[in-house]
## 1
Amino acid sequence: MIRKCLFPAAGYGTRFLPATKAMPKEVLPIVDKPLIQYGVEEALAAGMDNIAIVTGRGKRAIADHFDISYELEHQISGTSKEDKLGGIRHLIEHCVFSYTRQIEMKGLGHAILTGETLIGHEDAFGVILADDLCLGEPDPVMKQMVDLYNQHNACIIGIEEVPMEEVYKYGVIDAQDMGNGVYKVNAMVEKPAAEDAPSNLAIIGRYILTPEIFDVLRDTPPGKGGELQITDALNTMAGEGKVLAYKFNGKRFDCGSVEGFVNATNYFFDKLYGGS
């Protein structure tokens, strides 16, 4: 059973400056709940109650959010506002949180490798990028991927179809369709031009990885921009037939962009408060 989920959360969030100058982008609210809380709720719904978070300088608010605030609890005790903390209390009571710091920003692959000390080498683990806010139908996206892992015991990467003119923003897969949204990955290309893209199936911020990934990452040279790319490491494993991709059922918001963040806010506002 997969119990651990890794959250790389050390990035600077420069696309949201000046808001993220002193506030982690992961705690920016979608209506009334921080981005990262949506991800942790998704992980717990998939059975992952051991939450490992890779942070960096200026990210203390993340740990504070997933902790009890005794002063606040005392102030709102017995009032109508007490119910507003029900969701976060549930996570605090049912999850174990651990943290480590990524000293330098050297790419997603480096962030995942930094999390090795929290994850260990015993079992597969999930990876959620809080920027990608996903709503699975009917099950949460990570739960869908766990079910697939239990069938195949291979690395699983979440994908979605994007317009060809937008493939340059993503890692894109070259893969064989196995049916039911599952693909056997042959190779991955990081942010290709449209004319060079093998498909329009883009990698999103959901992964299930086996512990083997840590050794592969250590042996992977830096890629684009001198960063350690997770796609390069997964390419190595794909060459050995160890990687599947899954086109999940549901909706995704790219909250790493201002437009996606606003779209998610509007969607959840309508959902919560009955807007049109």
## 2
Amino acid sequence: MKRILLCLICIFSLLGSKAQSYNELVEKAMDYTFKDSLQQAEKLFREALRLDPYNARNALLFSNLGTVLKRQGKIDEAIDSYTMALNITPYATAILLNRATLYMEKNLTEKAYLDYCNVIDLLPNDKEARLFRAYIYMKRRQYKEARIDYNVILGIDAKHKAARLGLAMLDQKEGRYIAARDGMNLLIEDYPKDASLYKMRANLELEQNLPDAALLDLEEALKLDARDADTHVMMGDIYLQMEKKHEAREAYEKAVSLGVPRMELMEKLKKCK
């Protein structure tokens, strides 16, 4: 009887030691993560997973390991780690979104699309999943489906900047120029310090053959960000189209001074003579 008791005590002692070691490893790994000591955190997460591969908390550990790997630029390994987490908890929307983000970084849009669809099935009002799925639909030229996702977002948040911008771009692609310009006008009213919006409206105006209006918008963009070389190139292109060669050359030379390689603009500069 005493031997049995001693054996049981030893077994429980070992189990307690194992659990404690697992918990200690996880705690230290989290501490290293918060301190940005990512290599040490990765090592400890992996040790904990090896020590107790069937622990109920391992889905969270694989997810945390995925985030640590992502922050180190180990994208493929991070995807694998998120996938291991999802094998344990397939309905974890935060992990699905994290994996989808990495799929998008690797241009694996079809895989990302499936993850976003799964999130939307579980959380129909998730704005992040709707927004990125709309982006994928736009790339596929599935404009009807993209519009549905943008409208769902705006039904939740009428001022959502990215969704409003997406709808304006969608209207532009479909040739609804008045609606597109109305959308851009409202966005600029709400975000008058966003230089990129003026550039986008300038692109829209160029499609409508309104070069003077486009130049005005690009001038506004430069007031907000005078060192944007791309804006100077856009202005040079418009001036060249208008046969204002002196102004075009000045714009291109400014772009070169801001870092655009002269070779990239050589053909355009030749046309300014």
